[in-house]
Design brief:
The complex is a heterodimer of chains A (441) and B (334). With 441 residues, chain A is mainly alpha-helical. Chain A is built from 15 helices and 8 strands. In chain B, strands 1-2 form a two-stranded antiparallel sheet. Classes of the chains: A mainly alpha (441), B mainly alpha (334). At the A-B interface, helix 2, helix 3 and helix 14 of A face helix 3, helix 4, helix 5, helix 7 and helix 14 of B. The complex binds CIS-heme D hydroxychlorin gamma-spirolactone and protoporphyrin IX containing FE (HEM) (2 copies). Chain A: Pfam families: Cyt_bd_oxida_I.
Chain lengths: 441, 334
């Protein structure tokens, strides 16, 4: 494997790994806070047990998120030193604020996990909320840093020099809002469906129904609200990309030729050599509408983009299709679920609906990873869009392929262990939480 | 503002060394504990560092973020020439953090614990070893930015006796800090005596490896003795460290745990000060005799201003909270 490809793969792998854990770290505290609140209000031991059971899972995920995040903050330099040399001072602002957010999160987590029976109960609840809010804040901040790579501002680029740096302006770049909004919703959707799905599975297996039903309901509401808002926010993102990065939009849609009006392609197989797409369903004018809010607007194709500034089309296109496809599916599941809630249909009788949720366990995360592939691969060949090329940023050290293999092995084994631990936690639910007695930590 | 940023950078490094170091040390202590006492040590340790390790770990993140935002040239030079030790350290951090949490939260206690324990102990040793190696390499003057071949650019930059001695010295200090910390965390007289013994061994190890650092520096033509003994600040720091060492031994016998901790922290701080003051603000010494100084490598003004503001604001938010965390989860002294 050549070093440049290895560096890109290692970056993608580390980020793709970290994002799963960080999403759980951002979202689970809110689920726990709801359950915790219900316990404090109703004194129903079931909610207390649920909060505790979840918090153990979160501790596992949080630690994995923290160490993989630490890895990332070094990796940016280990793999992309020339990028960091220039970009560090410009897009560093969100990272320095993020440091504060992480710190608060870590402290609050210490209080929350170890504070049972030691703290005032409402203060204890509050520390759980703080974990969630600061997690969300750090997520937004780091996405703002990524958005800067897509929409660099806050400096003047003169003769290869980065002058008049303004880190605040860089943080509040044109892409930060649409990306951060979409990302936060994605975190809730993906984690919500995964959690709800796991509990749905346990309900279907008739294990501790009471316990799992409580859990399912909390997670499902968050998941479904997220999934309903996701397409709207995705539309904002798409319009944004059309304005800001026409090359990325063209690659997402595999639009080789500029068209007016432009059709939306669903499915299809991309042939990068011939620059054609076979077997796609075409919806006339739809792309013009999605990109510019007008069925007749012109959409720039790849023919208007210089050959050495074009991103890989096939990967970007497929990833986009996966994300939107899953997004649409999850939206329908959510509609059905809410329809059921409004009609007050008992959930336990709708086994097929629970089965749908089980099916959705991996889907949210799949969409999330696919979305990031769209954003990041669609930005290529640029690391800083329009300013610095990725291949000019890579470390001069040879042999990166080996470090890529090592980290693949590490992440692979960590994933296995985490899954295994979670499985064991769930397996122990009947033993730990079945009776009504208080479970000691 | 640049002073604010530099102060925070030094503070971050120092606190990571003291607090994170004590965390690592706890694992080192476990490594050197006989098999029948291990589970007890593990329990004491878990109660002591469980609630705080995540927060302790943050000092590293703070330091690294300050480096890449405020001193990008230093960050990238380190990243390129010390790629390999950084990588090993990172693997250590990943392995240690996860093993620590996994072994506590695994709902079923079985053979898996054998694995978690192994990983935890060995990575607790390796991580500070490489942390020390990195620190040593920064000042050893082996980093060669003009190197033409792989080994002189990426291997000999850190693989030398001086760096390794500093690494071992760091391990001993971490173990020492942890032992002192743990004395106050247990109430059983037997355990207290055990940890006191450990503190003594670690202290002896630190003295031995410390001597090794000086010898290696001598052989390597690193002017360490000049830095420490010919500089008034370095000299006073080392004298203070020695005095506190004597006091420490005295208190160790008396068993005053709170004062002990402060003293141990003070001693390590003095050692760091003695080593680093003379070449401050130079952060990296290069093979060709040049050095990269904090003041020269500092980022553009506006960046430093906003970084400084973020740090100040952050500390107003964080410090009270953090203090309360330590207070709340500390075992009260009788
Ligand atoms: C649960 C996950 C999920 C779901 C269901 C969707 N997305 Fe998404 N999408 C993401 C998760 C995601 C993401 C992983 O969070 C990304 C990557 C970067 C970002 O800001 O969000 C993303 C990026 C992203 C981008 C690129 C933004 C950029 O590069 O700045 C566009 C245009 C869309 N999405 C559009 C959509 C549309 C039209 C959807 C309709 C259903 C959709 N997404 C569903
Ligand atoms: C966590 C979610 C993210 C995922 C899954 C992700 C995914 C990826 C992928 C697939 C690549 C490789 C692209 C290619 O080379 O073809 C990449 C590259 C990269 N990403 Fe991200 N990314 C994420 C977030 C971020 C964030 C928040 C940042 C920075 C603030 C970032 C910085 C980078 C950098 C520096 C590269 C390497 C240069 C490049 O290939 O352009 N990423 N990422
Ligand atoms: C879209 C991408 C990202 C999101 C949404 C995100 C979010 C988060 C969140 C919520 C946490 C808290 C820990 C947890 O809950 O598990 C976390 C941890 C961390 N992240 Fe990320 N992150 C992203 C990418 C990155 C990148 C690119 C870096 C480094 C440059 C990074 C550095 C860190 C660090 C250092 C931690 C550990 C903090 C601790 O010890 O608590 N993250 N991330």
């Amino acid at each position: 494997m050549d070093d440049f490809l290895a560096a890109r793969s290692q970056m993608a792998l580390s980020l793709g790994f970290h994002i799963i854990f960080s999403c759980i770290g951002m979202v689970m505290p809110f689920f726990m806070a709801v359950s915790h609140y219900k316990w404090l209000k109703t004194n129903d031991e079931g909610y207390k047990n649920l909060t505790k059971a979840w918090s153990k899972g979160v501790a596992i995920f949080f630690a994995t998120g923290a160490v993989s995040g630490t890895m990332l903050s070094f990796e940016l330099g280990l793999l992309w030193p020339k990028f960091m040399e220039h970009a560090g001072p410009i897009f560093g602002m969100p990272f320095s604020l993020e440091g504060t957010a992480f710190f608060i999160e870590a402290i609050a987590l210490g209080f929350f996990l170890y504070g049972w029976n030691k703290l005032n109960k409402w203060f204890h609840w509050f520390t759980g909320m703080v974990v969630g809010v600061s997690g969300l804040a750090s997520g937004i901040l780091v996405v703002a840093a990524n958005a800067w790579m897509n929409a660099p501002t806050g400096f003047d680029f003169v003769n290869g020099k980065y002058l008049n740096i303004d880190p605040i302006q860089a943080m509040l770049n044109k892409a930060w809002f649409s990306q951060a909004l979409h990302m936060c919703l994605a975190a809730f959707t993906a984690t919500g469906f995964a959690v709800a799905g796991v509990h749905a599975l346990m309900i279907l297996r008739n294990q501790n129904k009471d316990f799992h039903l409580k859990a399912f309901k909390i997670a499902a509401v968050f998941a479904c609200i997220g999934a309903l808002l996701q397409p709207l926010s995705g539309d904002i993102s798409a319009k944004d990309v059309a304005k800001r990065q026409p090359a990325k939009l063209a690659a997402m849609e595999a639009l080789y030729k500029t068209e007016k009006p432009a059709p939306l392609l669903i499915g299809g197989i991309v042939n990068e050599k011939d620059k054609t797409v076979k077997g796609a369903i075409k919806i006339p004018g739809a792309l013009s509408f999605l990109a510019h809010g007008d069925f007749k607007a012109e959409v720039k194709g790849l023919d208007q983009i210089h050959a050495n500034e074009q991103p890989p089309v096939a990967i970007t296109h497929y990833a986009f299709q996966i994300m939107v496809g899953i997004g649409t599916l999850l939206m329908f599941i959510s509609l059905i679920y809410f329809f059921n809630l409004i009609r007050k249909k008992p959930l336990l009788e709708k086994r097929w609906l629970l089965k749908l949720f089980v099916l959705a366990i991996p889907l949210g995360y799949l969409a999330l990873e696919a979305g990031w592939v769209v954003t990041e691969v669609g930005r290529q060949p640029w690391i800083i869009y329009g300013i610095m090329r990725t291949k000019d940023a890579v470390t001069p050290m040879p042999g990166i392929a080996y470090s890529f293999y090592i980290f693949s092995a590490i992440y692979f084994s960590l994933s296995i262990i985490v899954t295994f631990l979670l499985y064991r936690q769930i397996k122990m639910v009947p033993v730990l939480y079945n009776d009504k007695s208080i479970v000691k930590h | 503002m640049e002073y604010v940023v530099i102060t925070f950078l030094c503070l971050g490094i120092l606190l990571y060394f003291l607090l994170g170091g004590a965390d690592f040390g706890a694992g080192i202590i476990e490594l050197f504990t006989s098999a029948n006492n291990r589970s007890k040590t593990r329990k004491t340790m878990y109660q002591a560092i469980g609630p705080v390790w995540e927060a302790n770990h943050m000092w590293l993140i703070i330091a690294i973020v300050i480096l890449f935002v405020g001193f990008p040239h230093i960050y990238t030079t380190m990243s390129v020439y010390l790629h390999i030790p950084l990588l090993i350290m990172l693997i250590g951090i990943i392995a240690r953090g996860t093993a620590f949490v996994f072994r506590h939260y695994d709902a079923i206690k079985d053979d898996m614990h054998w694995i978690y324990n192994r990983i935890f102990r060995y990575s607790s040793f390796i991580t500070p070893l490489f942390l020390g190696i990195i620190a040593g390499s920064l000042i050893s003057g082996h980093i060669d930015t003009n190197a033409k071949d792989f080994s002189s650019a990426y291997i000999y930059s850190w693989l030398n006796w001086f760096s390794i001695s500093v690494g071992l010295f760091t391990v001993a200090l971490c173990g020492f800090l942890a032992a002192i910390y743990l004395i106050g965390e247990t109430s059983e007289a037997y355990d207290k005596r055990r940890f006191i013994k450990k503190a003594e061994y670690m202290n002896i190890a630190a003295v031995v490896f410390g001597a090794m650092v000086f010898i290696a520096a001598q052989l390597d033509n690193i002017p360490l003795t000049d830095w420490v003994f010919k500089n008034p600040v370095g000299l006073s720091a080392i004298i203070l460290a020695s005095i506190s060492l004597i006091l420490l031994w005295y208190l160790l016998i008396k068993g005053k745990t709170q004062v002990l901790r402060i003293l141990a922290g003070f001693q390590v701080t003095m050692i760091l000060l003695a080593i680093s003051y003379a070449h401050f603000p130079n952060f990296i010494r290069l093979k060709n005799g040049d050095a990269i100084s904090l003041f020269e490598a500092i980022g553009p003004e506006k960046t430093i201003y906003s970084l400084g503001m973020a740090l100040l604001l952050g500390s107003i938010l964080i410090l009270p909270f953090l203090g309360y965390l330590f207070y709340k989860f500390q075992k009260k002294e009788e």
